[in-house]
């Protein structure tokens, strides 16, 4: 009897723990212009403010690339224009170094190594994974998109830091 109760308690605890864990994380599948997967980015909330991106990508051109959250949860290839402009609930200009900036969706550059892989973490302090009624939630207005650009973001040129074409895209939804 005692063992059965313990077992039930353990099962309930496991279920509760798993549902908590899955609620706090969002997996974004990133695809290139041909629709081929280039890996995943796992989003989780960082303390009380901001979102951490746990990035594990492959088959990308080596070097630095702009990476941003865009306004629409749409990744229609090959140009990914359907994702719209950078996520910008505060009506600011582009760039972490722009005096009139920055978009909530702006972040530091992604670094891809010589073998085409990127394994790193980035943080965006201006967004959250809260319910869609919060204007800074990545789930507001039906979601957003994560986009990797062809070139490095110069962190100051409006509207996208001269980061060029959109080469990979992933939909951010619950
Ligand atoms: Zn921007």
Describe the structure.
- The protein has 174 residues and is an alpha+beta fold.
- The chain has a single domain, classed as Superoxide dismutase, copper/zinc binding domain (Immunoglobulin-like, Sandwich), CATH 2.60.40.
- It is 13% helix and 31% strand.
- It has 1 helix and 9 strands.
- It has one helix spanning 2-24; strands at residues 25-32, 37-45, 51-57, 63-65, 67-70, 110-112, 118-124, 144-149, 166-172.
- The strands form 2 sheets. Strands 5-8-9-1-2-3-7 form a 7-stranded antiparallel β-sheet. Strands 4-6 form a two-stranded antiparallel sheet.
- A hairpin with a 4-residue loop joins strand 1 (25-32) and strand 2.
- It starts with a helix and ends with a strand.
- Residues 18-23 have low confidence and may be disordered.
- Zinc ion binds next to loops.
CATH superfamily: Superoxide dismutase, copper/zinc binding domain
The name CATH uses for the topology is Immunoglobulin-like
Reading side by side through the largest sheet, how are the strands ordered? 5-8-9-1-2-3-7
What molecules are bound to this protein?
A: zinc ion
How many individual domains? 1
Principal-axis shape equals globular
Q: Please identify the structural class as seen in this structure.
A: alpha+beta
Strand content: 25-35%
Compact overview of the structure:
The protein has 174 residues and is an alpha+beta fold. It has one helix at residues 2-24, and strands at 25-32, 37-45, 51-57, 63-65, 67-70, 110-112, 118-124, 144-149, 166-172.
